[in-house]
Each structure stands twice: as C-alpha cells, then as structure tokens.
Amino acid sequence: MNSKTIGIDIGGANTKLASSDGTIVELHYLPLWKNTMLPEVLKEISQRLKPENVAVVMTGELADCFEDKEQGIRFIKENVDSAFGSGKVSYINSQGRFRKENDPLRDLAAANWAASARLIGEEIGDCIFVDVGSTTSDIIPVISGEHRAGHTDFERLLRSELVYAGTLRTNLAALLEKVKLEKGICRTSSELFATTADAYLILGEINEDKYTCETADGVGRSKIEAMRRIARLVCADLSEVGETEVYEIAEQVKEKQVSALTEAISEVAERNRLEKIAAAGLGEFLISEAAERLGFECISVAGRWGEEISKVFPAYAAARLLDKYSELIVSE
C-alpha cells in the first residue's frame, strides 16, 4: 500500500478520495446538477497529489443534469482522464472488476458499492455489507468473495439492496408523512424544509463539521437553526412547537430510518442466509442499531480501518484493489 495510489468516488453530491495506505482522505461537496467545479477540482487533486495510479468508481451519472446514464458516465470519464491522464486511470464496474477496453461503458454506472463489497469479501468474508452515506444506504450480500446484488440501482431498489435515504441529504418529508406531537398526530409538509442532517445534529449523532451538505434554507448549521428548519416540517416556528417537540420529531426521523434499514437488511439476510453485517459510512450508528434489533453480529469498518476511511470507503476500496490487482487488470 502507498500514498501514490488513490481511489476516487464521484457521486452526484460528493467526490471522495483516499490513498491505498489511508494517509490521504478527502471529501469534496460537489453537486453535479449545479454545474460545479468538478473538472477544476480533479485537476487540482492531480497537480497536488501527483498520483502514480488512480482507481475510479462513480454514481454521479444519475444526476439529472444528464439526459441519461451514458452521458453522465462519459462526462465523468472524460474529465477524470483529462485531469490525470488516461494511462494512469482504471475504472471499476458493477461486478467489482476493473473495466477492460471493450467492456460496455454502462457497466460503470453506480459501481462504488461493488468496489467496497469486493474488498469486504476479501477482508471479512461472507456478510451483508451495509454503507449508509449522506444520501443512500447500500445493503449488499457478499458470499465467497463476490457480491450477489443486482448490478444497477433500479435492480437493487427492487431487491431492497438500496434504500434511498441517508444521514445528511434526505428530505424529512420523504421519511415522515405524519409526526406525533403533544397536540396530536400532525401531517408533514412536502417541501424541502429540513433534512436528516438537521435531525442527527439535534440528536448529537453528527456535529457541525460532519454537516457537509447545504442546508435546506441556505443558512447556518447550528442546533438552533436546525431546530427552526425542523419546525417548518409541520408549518410551524419555534413559538408554536418547542425544543422538546422538535427533539421528538428528530427521534421519529431516526426511528423511521432505522426501521426501514432493519426491514431491508432482514429481507436481504433471509434471501441470502446471512447473519453478519459489515457497517460503513457516516451512518454506522444507524446500522449498529438495526443489527442489534436483528440480533446480527456487526463489524464496524470505522473500528477496523478508521472513522475517516469509513466515510469514504468506496474510494479507499478502489485504491486498495488497484494496488492489489494492478498487474492483473488486463486479464480481469
């Protein structure tokens, strides 16, 4: 392992990178749908780190600034190749394998979880790899070193291997149709008033440093500002619902997300006869609670590789795989 091999995970909202030895870990908030500075950031990374080899995974091709996934893949690939030089770059596909020259380009879509699952299979063995990030939750069965998940996000949604909720960017209205308050059961407003980052900030599960996405109202990330946003979920302000009720709403957000995660993990576990979880991502705290409810063993990626690596695990896994298999990439 060395710092000259880096992995890059280019998502719709975040671009993450890690070196194969874990000494370099970075997260850049770059929402592709806003026509961000991705080309410039990639060039800056290239000039600053001067990597010898680069492994790339992506999910950003789904961003709605692209007409379809292939256009998104081409945009990302062209900018990565331009920044680093195509001779240095290897791409990992949805099978968790390095892409050969004539392989379908579309196989690169939504492949970051496949890199993680391959490394987990080699390092930990048979398990369900669960990664709860800022936006989504991956629930990947890994057996005999290979993932047994669907190869596209659509297939994985059908199989409960993808739950579209995360610890930062998920609209609370998408999780909660109603909330229980002192005055009764209250319907929520289907506006982007607050996100899961607000709930977990209030509950103390994350701090302001980990609140890396934009806020729903474009203002600050303090607890009082998060409370104001959550009050708007029920079309109120803090004169109508107090701190206690806002806290209770945040607790209901967490309960809903843990319940959904538990249900999906249970379905994947039953289908694949697995009872061990490897947990990664900013939302490891949600995974550990779901595992406890199911009575499953839970191995923490943060405990094994470090908290910072856990948050960018697909990038780290890509770098590690490139270090390990660089001489075999052509034959893969």
Automatic annotation (TrEMBL):
Taxon lineage: Archaea, Methanobacteriati, Methanobacteriota, Stenosarchaea group, Methanomicrobia
Q: Which residues form the Hydantoinase A/oxoprolinase domain?
A: 54-323
Q: Name one Pfam family in it.
A: Hydantoinase_A
Q: Which organism is it from?
A: Methanosarcina mazei (Methanosarcina frisia)
**InterPro entries linked to this entry:** ATPase_NBD, Hydantoinase_A, MfnF
Protein name, entry field: H4MPT-linked C1 transfer pathway protein
Q: Where are the transmembrane segments?
A: none
Question: Which Gene Ontology molecular function entries are recorded, alphabetically?
Answer: hydrolase activity
